[in-house]
Amino acid sequence: DDSVQLAIKxxxxxxxxxxxxxxxxxxxxxxxxxGDVTAAGVVYEVYHHTELAAEILVQQGVSVQY
Length: 66
Fold this sequence. Notes:
The chain is mainly β.
């Protein structure tokens, strides 16, 4: 598997912004929520990018905008 995975830990009230990451309104796909996973006792929500080989794991309780 050649995908890249990034885990983000945070606190309730923190926000991760997944939209508008590229300049000039470029859009190469979308993020979609796949579900939850637990790693080392921490629950993460898993977001997969529809066009890039990338997943972001965001600690449960952190707000995600996409």
